[in-house]
């Protein structure tokens, strides 16, 4: 399996270089013990409370883009401290990447408190996703109840039926607005019909249209 080694110390003092080198050496040995293919070694000197770290951002980017299955660390505090640690752990586990640590001499074993917090974060995220989907459905239903018929109004519905459509005819935004839908509801409704559009974009397009009429 492909793996990334992540090493971190909290300060940029020269004396910390020894700690970084020791972490790297021990993690390379741990990777060899488990026959992992190390594709990147990230060394970082920064506070664990800081989320804006080049190394950790690179790590999160790599596990999304590459076929990375394992991240090796000295212990979970090397990823971060406090809330930053929980946020990073959540991002890593969300990508179904395993964590191996020197402190556990294998797969990372989280404390009971960390496991509980991560479980709560996961539940909150799931309910946020459900609420988002409910808002889309309600927006679509409200539009239909007010006479909106997508099969008649969206002229490119059939031509690009499975493709993402970014451009939305301003006439549809105006029509939905006249039906007393909010900009958020209009955006949710159009996203439900396959248009990748935000509330801000809907508002901007509508305002531009109104301004053009006033000129």
TrEMBL record:
Gene3D superfamilies: Resolvase, N-terminal catalytic domain. GO terms for molecular function: DNA binding; DNA strand exchange activity. SMART domains: Resolvase. It comes from Cytobacillus firmus DS1. Residues 2-147 form the Resolvase/invertase-type recombinase catalytic domain. This is Resolvase-like protein YneB. Belongs to the site-specific recombinase resolvase family. SUPFAM superfamilies: Resolvase-like.
